[in-house]
Specification:
- By secondary structure, the chain is α+β, with helices and mostly antiparallel strands.
- It is 50% helix and 19% strand.
- The chain is globular.
- Bound molecules: nicotinamide-adenine-dinucleotide (NAD).
- Nicotinamide-adenine-dinucleotide (NAD) is lined by residues 146, 148-149, 152, 154, 180-188, 190, 213, 215, 277, 280, 320, 322-324.
Length: 423
């Protein structure tokens, strides 16, 4: 008999009963159910309030990247990631940058864009004029929605409109610019966009469909830059290799995607650990990379007149210290304490520095010994665990596989058998 995934009232069940249903549906063992029931430091009742249909939590390793010095201040960087080597590479790169004077950063004001889509407009230019003429009234209405944000100096600051041509005819797209202060701002901006839409319909004689924040947050950019002395990075040949790698990524979208992914390895790990919306960051980074032309890299590395390495990164950074899960997730709250950032803009700048470090770590390895040797030891341990190694066996199996250059589950199983036989 085929099983149905239609479960009437699933959301109304207590998490324990949902889990019992999943157990029967998927044929989970009692051990598997027990693992799911063990939610550790994120209590199930909290998880159940954070999302819908919760049945458990998904633990991810969290570690600390060390050595970061940004604008003269030292930071320890918590990172949640399943990928081996990320934290080691970030720490190593941060140490190199530190030797060159640390990271320097800057950012714009934390302004997000809310989009309002007006369709079925008869006269685009007139509709646009009507909206712009009513700017003061529309901003007032938007700001009425969030007195708390206003009290912190944030709120709707400006408004613009542009006409776009689409497969379904002309549309008027209104942009509402909202200073979100220490919030990521999606809820705040969406609420404002919805609130001013009836008036925009009236002004334009059109119909409003979408009212939503844009993740292409070009008004909320964070920038980081650094100089690494050539002797620290491994000599002029390595500097040249990194500059060539950067030029490759700037010119080729296939490489740029991986280059940017390397920077995001670090950024997303921190964003995740803080309970912020990592999809928003990832969407923003990639959209920004393609904003001015073909998809390209978000960071750049060159050799300066002294032969040293200079790098910089710039990307949208829509993160918050309040809102979303940042204050509800008990671990995210502790992570924020470790990070010790005082504002969302400082947080965004730290993230930019982390991205630049991660990018440097990957490029240095790629242009020197290759990425695999660094990856291998942690990868080998994962393979050992997958093959069933436990405790002290894990390192023994990993070491043997690396020595033999056979990092594979079948080989790991053989070594485990040999070790078990000897015991
Ligand atoms: P939120 O509404 O929970 O919190 C923001 C509010 O906190 C502000 O509006 C303000 O009233 C208040 N606040 C208190 N102290 C503040 C301070 N110092 N600075 C600024 N505001 C302060 O959250 P949010 O940040 O508006 O929205 C973030 C959430 O929206 C995330 O969970 C995200 O996943 C989600 N989301 C994202 C998208 C998207 O990115 N496309 C779309 C929808 C929802």
């Amino acid at each position: 008999m085929t099983k149905s995934s239609v479960v009437s009232g699933f959301y109304k069940l207590p998490p324990k009963e949902r889990l019992a249903f999943i157990r029967d549906f998927a044929g989970l063992t009692e051990d598997e159910v027990r693992l799911l029931e063990n939610t550790g430091s994120l209590p199930l009742e909290v998880a159940d309030h954070m999302i819908e249909n919760a049945i458990g939590v998904f633990p991810e390793p969290m570690g600390i990247a060390v050595n970061f010095q940004i604008n003269g201040k030292d930071y320890l960087i918590p990172m949640a990631t399943e990928e081996p080597s990320v934290i080691a590479a970030a720490s190593y790169a941060a140490k190199m940058v530190r030797d060159g004077g640390g990271f320097h950063t800057s950012s714009t004001a934390p302004v997000m864009i809310g989009q309002i889509q007006v369709v079925k407009i008869k006269n685009g230019d007139l509709a646009k004029k009507q909206v712009l003429d009513a700017k003061a009234e529309l901003l007032r209405k938007a700001n009425d929605q969030d007195p708390v944000l206003n009290s912190f100096g944030g709120g709707a600051k400006d408004l613009d409109a542009r006409i776009i041509e689409t497969t379904m005819g002309q549309m008027l797209i209104v942009h509402l610019f909202v200073d979100c202060r220490d919030a990521m701002g999606a809820n705040a901006v969406n609420t404002m966009a919805e609130a001013i839409s009836p008036k925009i319909e009236q002004l334009t004689d059109g119909h409003v469909y979408l009212r939503i924040i844009s993740n292409l947050a070009i008004k909320r950019l964070a920038k980081a830059w650094c100089t690494v002395p050539k002797e620290v990075v491994g000599g002029e040949k390595v500097v040249d290799g990194i500059a060539y790698a950067s030029a490759f990524a700037a010119a080729d979208p296939y490489r740029a995607a991986t280059h940017n992914k390397g920077a995001l390895n670090g950024i997303i790990a921190v964003v995740l650990a803080t309970g912020n919306d990592h999809r928003a960051i990832e969407a923003g980074a990639h959209a920004y990379a393609a904003f001015k032309g073909p998809y390209t890299s978000i960071s750049k590395w060159t050799k300066n007149a002294n032969g040293d390495l200079e790098g910089s990164i710039e990307m949208p950074m829509a993160v918050g210290l309040v809102g979303g899960a940042v204050r509800t997730h008990p671990i995210a709250r502790i992570v924020m304490k470790i990070l010790n950032v005082k504002s969302a803009t400082e947080f965004g700048e730290v993230l930019a520095a982390v991205g630049l470090a991660q990018n440097l770590g990957a490029l240095r390895a790629l242009s020197n010994e290759g990425i695999q040797s660094g990856h291998m030891s942690l990868h080998a341990r994962n393979i050992a665990i997958t093959a069933g190694a436990k405790g002290a066996q894990i390192d023994l199996v990993a070491e043997r596989m690396i020595k033999e250059s056979k990092v594979r589950v079948d080989r790991a199983k053989e070594i485990i058998e040999e070790l078990t036989d000897k015991q």
